[in-house]
Every structure is written in C-alpha cells, then in structure tokens.
Write a structure and sequence with these properties.
Layout: H1 2-20, H2 22-28, E1 43-47, E2 50-53, H3 54-72, H4 78-105, H5 111-120, H6 124-127, E3 133-134, E4 137-138, H7 140-148, H8 150-154, H9 157-208, H10 217-269
Antiparallel strand pairs: 1-2, 3-4
Helix pairs in contact: 1-4, 1-10, 3-4, 5-9, 9-10
Length: 270
C-alpha cells in the first residue's frame, strides 16, 4: 500500500518539478551561471547518479530549435529559445527518472511487443499522414503496405517507430501498474468497509436486544473508527486516481509533441 503511494507521489513530483523548477535546476546544478567553466562534459544535472552532459543537452536544444524554426517558418525570440531549453531539460530529466523506475519495477519491452504495436497501434502522426488516408480516414491497409515496403527502411521510418514504441510501451506499462495497484487497494478497502459496517450493525442490534454485553461498546467504537479510516483512504485513492489521469494526460501531450517532431523530421528528409 505505502509503496504504491510513494510510487504515485514520485510521478506527481516529477510533473510539478517540470513546471516550476526545471529552469532553476538547469542553471543551479550545472555551473552554467558562470561559477565554473562550461565544457562539453559539464553536467547540467545529476539524476540519481546519472549525469546529463552539456554537449548532449545542447545537441537536443539545437535540434529542437531547428525543428521549431522549420515548422513555424520564423526566427525564434529569446523567450522562445529559453522555453525550448527548459522543455528539453525537463524531458531529459524525466527520461532518466522513468528509466530508473522501469528498472526498479522490472518493466521491459520485447522485440515482439514493438512489432505488434507497430503493426496494429500506429501513433497519431502516422494516422494523420495524408498518404495513408482513404476518403479522409486512416487506411490500415495502406499503412501495412508502407511498413512492408523498402521505403519504410530507407526513409528511417522503421527506426523512428522502434524508438517511439521503446519509449511509449514501458510508460504505458508503468501507468497500468500504478493504476492497477490503486484499484486493487481501493477494492480491498471497499470490501473491508462493507464487512466492518455489517459486523458493527449486527453488534449494535445484539447490544440493543440484550444478546450481547454492553461492554462490547468498545468494539463498536473500534469498528466505527475503522469504517471512518476506510472512508478517508478510499476518498484519497479516488483523488490519486484522478491525479494519475491528469499526469498521464500531461505526459501523453509531451509524447505527442515528440511524435510530431519525428513526423516533421521525416517530412523534411523525404
């Protein structure tokens, strides 16, 4: 129970950190404020002992700036650039945190899973591609033909899909595990609540008709406290379930943005 709560709290914290402290951490932990010389191997952050190196961070920032400029057809302002820098930092920190949690939970992705998802669960940027539409709707047969064609390999589409699914599948497994843990605890508490309430009602009735000693009042009090504790915990689990949905939606938006960047890159190369 407590482990599930800690697991949920970690991801809620990650989301809050992305929103409020990402940019601050970038400069405070990296030496980028001028206190130390910046080199390609300067760590912009250290996440659970894993360093995010400045050259890797800078490469992703520059790639994202180019993608945005190509997509929007304009030069970027300083505010735009700073926003991209913070977003890239958030993403790189989040990736390391998620990888740590996957290892802790034993979450892996097999080649068969990647192939299965690629065939039957194409990402949105694939489903929206104009060349895969028939009468304005995504055509699965066209998609299957594309996957089997030399063009898919030559254009780098298969590599892009594999990268996407090796990131997306474990994330979905993680959320499924956390949601299942919350639901299992909630179901157990609801059953305990019903059982305790029924026992308390029978005991009160027995005390009223004299078949049980009045000294059993302490048992009724303990059962009442147990019922109230169950109610509070069930309400908290319902709140956590709602927060998980919000967090999942937020991370889906991040993944969707990444998918759109892959599509833009593929279009530019094509």
């Amino acid at each position: 129970m407590l482990q599930q709560m800690r697991g949920l709290a970690k991801y809620i914290w990650v989301l809050v950190a992305f929103i409020f402290v990402g940019g601050f951490l970038l400069y405070e932990t990296s030496g980028l404020m001028g206190r130390t010389p910046v080199t390609p191997t300067t760590a912009v952050a250290v996440v659970n002992g894993q360093e995010i190196l400045y050259n890797n961070y800078l490469a992703r920032v520059q790639a994202e700036i180019q993608n945005v400029q190509q997509r929007e057809g304009r030069s970027l302002s300083q505010d735009d650039t700073r926003r991209i820098e913070n977003n890239v930092f958030d993403q790189m920190v989040g990736e390391l945190l998620l990888q740590d949690e996957y290892r802790r939970r034993g979450i892996i992705v097999t080649d068969d899973e990647v192939r299965e998802f690629a065939r039957y669960a194409p990402p949105s940027w694939i489903m929206q591609a104009g060349e895969l539409q028939t009468e304005g709707r995504f055509d699965p047969e066209k998609y299957q033909r594309l996957l089997a064609s030399p063009q898919a390999r030559q254009s780098g589409l298969l590599v892009q899909l594999e990268q996407y699914y090796r990131s997306e599948i474990p994330r979905q497994k993680l959320f499924d595990q956390i949601a299942a843990g919350i639901e299992a605890e909630k179901t157990g508490l609801e059953n305990r609540y019903k059982s305790t309430a029924a026992n308390a009602a029978f005991l009160v009735e027995a005390m009223e008709n004299g078949s049980a000693s009045a000294s059993k009042g302490s048992d009724v009090s303990a059962m009442t406290n147990s019922i109230l504790n169950c109610e509070r915990r069930i309400a908290e689990l319902a709140r956590q379930k709602g927060l998980m949905k919000e967090l999942r939606h937020s991370l889906d938006a991040i993944v969707e943005d990444g998918s759109n960047r892959l599509a833009a890159q593929a279009t530019a190369r094509g």
